[in-house]
Amino acid sequence: xxxxxxxxxxxxxxxxxxxxxxxxxxxxxxxxxxxxxxxxxxxxxxxxxxxxxxxxxxxxxxxxxxxxxxxxxxxxxxxxxxxxxxxxxxxxxxxxxxxxxxxxxxxxxxxxxxxxxxxxxxxxxxxxxxxxxxxxxxxxxxxxxxxxxxxxxxxxxxxxxxxxxxxxxxxxxxxxxxxxxxxxxxxxxxxxxxxxxxxxxxxxxxxxxxxxxxxxxxxxxxxxxxxxxxxxxxxxxxxxxxxxxxxxxxxxxxxxxxxxxxxxxxxxxxxxxxxxxxxxxxxxxxxxxxxxxxxxxxxxxxxxxxxxxxxxxxxxxxxxxxxxxxxxxxxxxxxxxxxxxxxxxxxxxxxxxxxxxxxxxxxxxxxxxxxxxxxxxxxxxxxxxxxxxxxxxxxxxxxxxxxxxxxxxxxxxxxxxxxxxxxxxxxxxxxxxxxxxxxxxxxxxxxxxxxxxxxxxxxxxxxxxxxxxxxxxxxxxxxxxxxxxxxxxxxxxxxxxxxxxxxxxxxxxxxxxxxxxxxxxxxxxxxxxxxxxxxxxxxxxxxxxxxxxxxxxxxxxxxxxxxxxxxxxxxxxxxxxxxxxxxxxxxxxxxxxxxxxxxxxxxxxxxxxxxxxxxxxxxxxxxxxxxxxxxxxxxxxxxxxxxxxxxxxxxxxxxxxxxxxxxxxxxxxxxxxxxxxxxxxxxxxxxxxxxxxxxxxxxxxxxxxxxxxxxxx
Length: 713
Fold this sequence. Notes:
There is one protein chain. The strands form 5 sheets. A 5-stranded mixed sheet has the order 8-7-6-5-9. A 5-stranded mixed barrel has the order 13-14-15-17-16. It has 5 domains: 2-69, no CATH class; 74-142 and 404-409, no CATH class; 150-169 and 199-385, 3-Layer(aba) Sandwich (Endonuclease, Chain A); 434-498, no CATH class; 528-642 and 665-713, CATH 2.40.50.140. The two termini are 28 Å apart. It is an alpha+beta fold. The protein has 24 helices and 18 strands. Helices cover 35% and strands 14% of the residues. The longest helix has 20 residues, at 72-91. β3 and β4 form a beta hairpin.
């Protein structure tokens, strides 16, 4: 409208001629007819007294507007959307993340990048789960960190479910301890010892705790029935070096049985399964933590999933807690009963033997030392961590701007091939929660295929089942519909009557979990695929993308990552802009036309690419000007590789042990269906028709699961 008015006022265009000019502007890129108005407009403006140079500039602006411009009304509405979106992303990244996930497929970035950005802004993102998720991504609980990874106070609806790592405890602690008959059992003994509060001497605490036979028997039973995460952590505490510290497991103390306990430093370690996220269990945990804190004990809580997926980070957190406790007036040793693990003195580096030097899963808050100065002390409960966020270093300046108080729970919409009507049926029948795969099958009416899809997506963690165990349980279900679900055993008084004994399946490697996450969810919360091959990349002198921030301008460097975005704007004269991502950060790549023609297959087809070029840094924006690109997708095959089983030292393997080995295993119905649909699972490469596959087949199968990247023009 403004261009039309200029033409009519300055060049004496008629209304019809001005409208033709408008149409030419709208079709400039397709037909290129706007140049036909140049002479009329320039000469008309000159005739009305304007300088020719000024008239030429006015027409050039109109030409440029035809390439980029849009109406004022459009600009105003778009500006409002941009402002509102930017404000939400700045202050409420949890809301921003959930909204974008629910609007997929759309936008510039894929779900994996949206989730990664939220985590870099301190937002906990929780996986799809049959007892917690809706179809859409949701916000749940109040933000809080317990020990390491994100922990919610009330992430799930109330449920009496028990799962992996859950210990069946009454709503109130046992009253069977000395002095418990005349006082509330939830009240801790009054603190004594050091002036100003803190730990009382542990022998005095022990003297008032009557470890009844019932409590001791329960502790022994829990040791025998330890969960897999408890056994894994115990093996590390028992064999690692940590400054001569001794831990006990399943130790009775007052009304409770502690998972792990260090009597010399007053450190308690608790492992929680998913049911601890429910309101009832979370409330019990808070009462338990408050009781132990009032006794002067430090409480560290970890999810079982942290033990499975980030054990090194958990051990680092424990080590920092031990160091902090040593600096804060260590306690005398105590003869409290309990199975103990004496840890040998540490070497001079004072760190856990065999544990990486990565930072702890969450930074402990600073605490004043009795003698002045600052010291690192591990928190005793979640309340002190309400304001602690795991912000990425690039977002540290936003700490005071972020107001988010929720975590994001991924929805069933994230699962490939899982229908919205199946999700609605699952949620409608869920009530207070499902307690087994069979329970979900019977109550929800879902087909076995739908339940297998949930298992493929690793959505049964709240039941204590990982992907393999859930698939095993799903395969036991009937293949038919509702008519096959006979209620004969569903009314049995005891659940164990209708359940088969559990089968101890070998754990799935984390790399294979990540591949399956990408296969069925398009993202993984467990690890980044590139993190598994970082040693191989380092041996080739390929640095992390994070290193670009400290690399001098003009330095030649090689970086790598998953190709997540490719752009080829029509106005960029054939230049390609790529965005690649590794486990540390993203990198912006510029590919000039000559380089693109030389490396076209790599630029357009590689899922995982290495880029060599010069760093260009200006005003905080960093690019790598590519002069060499290499397709490294084949390196991702290691994610699906099954670790080779090795005999223990001194163990002799009887050659007859392989007598029943299946050399050509058959395919189940899902594998045949997926083969017909053209889907190849990276773990099924051994089923290819050509016999034993080459490494390139495994690499191709794994690479096909990785994101293709989004292309824009």
